[in-house]
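Provenance

Sequences were taken from public entries as deposited. Structures were produced by running a predictor on each sequence independently, with no templates supplied. The record for Leucine carboxyl methyltransferase 1 from Amorphotheca resinae ATCC 22711 is shown for reference.
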Amino acid sequence: MSSSQIPNLLSSRGGPRLRGRGRGRGGPSTLSASSRRDQNVQSTDTDAAVSRLSAVSLGYLDDPFAQYFVHGNGIRRLPIINRGTYTRTTALDTLINSFLSSSDPISNQPSRQIISLGAGTDTRYFRLRDQNRHHNLVYHEFDFPAVCAAKKQIVEANRPILGGDEGIFPNGPNGGVPDGDSNPEPEWGLLRSVDGETQERYICHPLDLRRLPSLESLSSFRGLRSDLPTLVISECCLCYLDIDIATDVVKWFGGRIPELGIVIYEPIGVDDPFGQMMVENLAARGIFMPTIQRYRSLSDQRARLAALEFQERNGAGGGSDAATIEDIWEQWVPAEEKERLNSLEGLDEVEEWQMLARHYAVAWGWKGGAALLKPPQTSREEQ
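Predicted structure for Leucine carboxyl methyltransferase 1:
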């Protein structure tokens, strides 16, 4: 299989559409170039949902909620895509579980906060809840207003998504952050009763992240706190923003939350033919990733996080690291788990898998205190 024929882990053509409300108004001829680019980016979430359901259906992942975010029965992805979806999900789960493991699992009071950027149809909060990891957690998601509204419709229409003690709240005290619309989408989320007290533990914030740096304080958003150790997740989100805006988004949180960790998943390695072909294929869909041109290697990603002050500073703890999906598959996934996954379906394209997996990276960092993230030991080989 030539490099031009190898699919990528971000998106693929076709596939079922996201359930719920449409993501735009009018047909392509009525949209501005900027709106079309935004819709192209949003379409990658639909592709990710299809890939997630494929991996779940074949037994790679355990996610009973994936089915609700794909219309129809889904599409079976190629084995290298299923393995990539598994490894990507496992990498983030490992880092998130590390972040949560240092908190008190018994306490019902919030002691950790997660902020997921461009969350789309991600089901991670629901999975954490079913794993009983949510008791001391406040979970925030940010995405385009139309995406947040569509996700709410899906949750409302599929009651099994809700936990037994959860209910939906429709709006926030601010009515949502105006996003160039006189009638902004309201914030929404899930309520649960704890010892007779109603608590908001999952909150979805409808916002174009390009507007975030212009906002003044955390109080613009319902339930967002500065006093909790916080983990920001960018699973193929910041890569679609202009580099300066992506940097400012991270600085916005870093300047307001003293104890902060971050996990970033995005492509790297555009200096070889495969990387160049990957960029060209995405560009043919109207999808552009400014960060891939700046942060081309693992060392670039580490330097990026260090420049954002994810490092030891003035006696306060901190640090950063990065690994490719190939590294993570080889070093983070136990041998017995590899055997289980290999038994699900054959993977004949070993060289293609290696080529694909070394072009995606997970970078992580923390600052402001003790190590928030303690992943397995990884290779330090530069890419």
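The radius of gyration is 20 Å.
The first helix runs from residue 33 to 57.
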